[in-house]
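From the pipeline queue, job 12 of 40. The input is one protein chain; the requested action is below.

Action: predict structure.
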Amino acid sequence: MKKMNRERCQDTNTVENMMRATFFTQRKDIINGVDTSDLMHEWPYLFETAGMMTHFKELTGIDIDDKAIASKCARVVSYFKCSDKTANMHTIFREMEKSSKNVDDVSAAGFLQLVLSYFSEREDQMFHKVDQTTLSSEVDCANLPCTPCIVVCGSPPLTAENYMFSVDQVVVNSHITIFSDALKLMFASYYCFNISYPGDQGATLEFVQRCLFKMNPEKGPKVEKTTSRKLTAVSPKVLSLISKIADYEWMD
């Protein structure tokens, strides 16, 4: 796989087969706390979309359906269009209308920004913006959040043409052109690398987990515990939004 990566081989079937064959050793390295930069060297495809999605499926049993995710993003965006909007949501919808990107990609980026806005959670911890011409080696990693983050090159997320992706303040993928790929990498990495959802993004990530990826555990949230207060199995805010969207779809 290292040789394939050096030669920039993107044979998806081969990558997926080899990632499945070496899954146990990948997990062993992750559980043993191998540094992210060393994981990049040992398992370069682990940070590519095909490789990480294969690892995620082996780990969780969840097979990510791109068409289903696109459809769900579009439905949530449709709900927010018909609901009471904040000033920030109005701005997001204006940017969506101006974007010339693929409709599904605009929906995915709009979905994530609208959900962050709805829960009043910090966008700057999920998106880190750099100049359009910035190389991965030029990103000031000290300013990146420790949690998985989408690095947006140049324009706002809705109109940007290029993205990077970071984990543990290390840029692990610098050539992402499809926002939905960045979204999948960001979310899946919380599971692949055993990372808790940060408290200031907890509701958004739990909603993504339950709405897009259909992961509905009965026990305990994945949000980091920052207070002595007992956390409920499902955030009431997340449950409320899911219920509102379900009612909207039924009425529609």
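Job complete. The first strand starts at residue 127 and ends at 130.
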